[in-house]
Amino acid sequence: MTSQPVFRIDPSRPLSAEMTRILDETGGRVVGHLEDSNGDHGRSLHEARKGIKKLRALLLLARAADKPLMKEEGRRLRDAARLIAGPREATAAVETVDRFIAAFPGKVESCRLAQIRDSLDARHTRIAGQALDDARAEAAAMCRMALERLRGNAPFAGVADSGILAKGFARTLRHWSEALERARDRGDPDDLHELRKTVKAHGAQLGLMRDYLDASMKKRRSDVDALGELLGEINDIHVMRAGLAGGTYGLPPEIDTKPFDRLLKKHARTLSKIGLQEAGRLLASAPEKPGKRLRRRLAKAA
């Protein structure tokens, strides 16, 4: 095993070999987190979902090498992540209330935040049982299947052609532009969620390719990661509002959630304005024809 961080392409090795190594190492860690029954369940699920997102970003980057296979196994990984979404969202719900308690101490009493938090914490404990174990086992099996199919079909054999990675890199930025336009036009939670996914994918690809990028692109990484976290916080708020409206959380009927919902809505508007501005700024600062620039650097490193 190489000494560099796992999710990073080493320019001194053949591209196809590096892509396979990253698939194996990152995939192995995902399965390990899913099968870890003794550790912190919330953390292991969070790390597993992060790893799956990285794997999907890897497949998007190399998609042109074998589009049908990459698309099919990307969907399998997506479905595996969805299996553990419920338990992870139960954790995220508690974390969301914790953020509001810290950010708005003056609203804790009027919005009943302490009581809501206690109820959500109890719900999280109930969910972390046999159903969670079953979901994790099924998700691990799906991830193993995706990894086996990808290894068995040698999907990265054609990645020696640097243009394939450059094409995938530029494609993700185009998806960012399209998602941003929809989010600006409609501002629906789903639109912001799609924007978040493209931002996360771009950030993961920046990490993968960082030894090939010039200084202007390397500087983007921390800003892109911060934007991804902000959009994730907005998504958590929208999920919380939907859960409160639909009775998903099973809160005691005596808890009036309307004040909290109003606070959630107001804060989401504030964060969304900031997020859309930052997404526009970072997209505008991306170099023109990034695929062409990256192709030259890949060819030079080969």
What report would you give on this structure?
By secondary structure, the chain is an all-alpha fold. It has one domain (15-301). The chain contains eleven helices and no strands. The chain has helices at 15-35, 41-61, 67-83, 85-103, 113-127, 130-152, 162-186, 189-208, 215-246, 258-285, 290-301. The two termini are 21 Å apart.
Descriptors for this entry?
302 residues, mainly alpha
Q: Ends: how far apart?
A: 21 Å
Q: How would you characterize the largest beta sheet?
A: none
Tally of DSSP helical segments:
11
Q: What share of residues is helical?
A: over 70%
**What proportion of the residues form beta strands (DSSP E)?**
under 5%
* Strand segment count: 0
The Rg value, from CA coordinates, equals 21 Å
Whole-number total of structural domains: 1
Q: Give the ordered list of helices and strands.
A: HHHHHHHHHHH
Q: Unreliable runs, pLDDT <50, ≥5 residues?
A: 1-5
Structural class: mainly alpha
The chain-level mean pLDDT equals 88
Note the overall shape.
globular
Write the layout of secondary structure elements.
Elements: H1 15-35, H2 41-61, H3 67-83, H4 85-103, H5 113-127, H6 130-152, H7 162-186, H8 189-208, H9 215-246, H10 258-285, H11 290-301
Helix pairs in contact: 1-2, 1-6, 2-3, 2-4, 2-8, 3-6, 4-5, 4-9, 7-8, 7-10, 7-11, 8-9, 9-10
Short overview:
The protein is mainly α and 302 residues long.
